[in-house]
Amino acid sequence: MLEAVLIDLFSLPANLQNNIQGLLHNTLETIEKYSAIHAPCVYVMCCQRQGSERKGEQEFLLAALRGFQSLRRRLELVCAQTTAAALYTIKQRLDEKDLSIIKVILPTLRKDLMKVYIDYLFTAVYQFEFEDLQVISDSESLQISEHQHEEQILPSQDVALIQSEIQMYLESLPSLKGELTILRSSLIPADIFLHGFTTRTGGISYIPTLSSCNLFSSSKRRDPQVVVKENLRRLANAAGFNPEAFHRVKVDHANAVCIMGKTEPDNYDGIVTDQKGVTLAAPGADCIPVLFADPVRRACGAAHSGWKGTLLGVSMATVNAMVSEYGCNVKDILVVLGPSVGPCCYKLPHESAKEFHRIDPKCVRLFDSASPYIDIRRATRILLERGGILPENIQDDSITDQNQNITFCTACHPDKFYSHFRDGTNFGTQIGFISIKD
């Protein structure tokens, strides 16, 4: 069922401005007629002009909006200086109401352009259909038509201009939920490695479960890639790394490891390098982002360790890759466990809990229950130590630092961290990152 209508009047030719009131009135009349029972939200998008010209046009538009009783409470005029700004404002309104099925009514010549904006600012969560607004410049008769014009591919320079406009607008937005915060470990030598773990503050993501420094986009979430890219740019500026040399694991909840410079697997939960200036990252929103550093051989790595990856030994697989590829001595490798769900909150079905019980009974609490509490950090430490990592070279603040410097429980701290366990499917993501300094 149609949930919202967007009427694009952003760039009507100057000789049509006098007809804009009648055009809008006719369009709204059609919407009201066919949406009498379930009136959709309606957003009218127009250009915010300067001075008296701006005031005059908006008065015309506001006059056209009056009188539509069934739409009145669900109708909004959105004026902005750029299409990106107007469309992003409308996206915020849609997200506030959890709307995702939208009809766009616009001049035929704007359709291909608008589709590019939508591709960048929205994800597959949203469904769009387009209806042509047939504008006839030599007549007072302006009508909506179902006529479909042949789609064209915009020239690459036009697409680049749209990308630039969107980027500039997003860069201008204020940070939300406080300043960008990076947690750092004292175990990893700062003169050799640049590293940290992000929290949820200091980005521009505004959807509550993603707010504000969400660092992952998918087809199932409402944060588009351009927003995540802007959050990453802000993180890179604060941390001091190059966002163009940033490599994140391709999560598969398994134990494959990517060696930077070699053929990249389709999916992998660990990644290692000895190249300077290349930043490696692993996500976490309950799963453990694990960082690895060898100050002797000057190599590093990152791994994503959820309960499945923990059981499959992804952390030791990452260590073994550093040993085999870069000649690291396992006793020189430092390992830091980042923010992740703690044994205070995390439960798994009994069958899965059995696997952790086999590693060490202390990894499971209330073992005889249907959903025992699981300590994936303890299991990770045990497997690392069995693989030769020295206990003193593993940082897990939940056992070593009562002040909880890094290894916070993500589910227990909604002000600091995202949590899939706590927030459900539309959850945000933080990361652990590391690179070798030039």
From TrEMBL:
Key words of the record: Acetylation, Cytoplasm, Endoplasmic reticulum, Hydrolase, Immunity, Inflammatory response, Innate immunity, Metal-binding, Nucleus, Peroxisome, Phosphoprotein, Transferase, Zinc
Keyword Iron attached: no
The reaction(s) this protein catalyses: guanosine + phosphate = alpha-D-ribose 1-phosphate + guanine; S-methyl-5'-thioadenosine + phosphate = 5-(methylsulfanyl)-alpha-D-ribose 1-phosphate + adenine; inosine + phosphate = alpha-D-ribose 1-phosphate + hypoxanthine; adenosine + phosphate = alpha-D-ribose 1-phosphate + adenine
Listed CDD domains: YfiH
Gene Ontology MF term list: copper ion binding; hydrolase activity; S-methyl-5-thioadenosine phosphorylase activity
Localization per Swiss-Prot or TrEMBL: Cytoplasm; Endoplasmic reticulum; Nucleus; Peroxisome
GO BP annotation list: inflammatory response; innate immune response; regulation of defense response
E.C. designation(s): 2.4.2.1, 2.4.2.28, 3.5.4.4
Keyword 4Fe-4S belongs to the record: no
GO terms under cellular component: endoplasmic reticulum; nucleus; peroxisome
Similarity section: Belongs to the purine nucleoside phosphorylase YfiH/LACC1 family.
PANTHER family linked: PURINE NUCLEOSIDE PHOSPHORYLASE LACC1, UNCHARACTERIZED PROTEIN YFIH
Assembly description: Interacts with FASN. Interacts with SDHA. Interacts with ATF6, EIF2AK3 and ERN1.
Protein name: Purine nucleoside phosphorylase LACC1
UniProt source species: Hippolais icterina
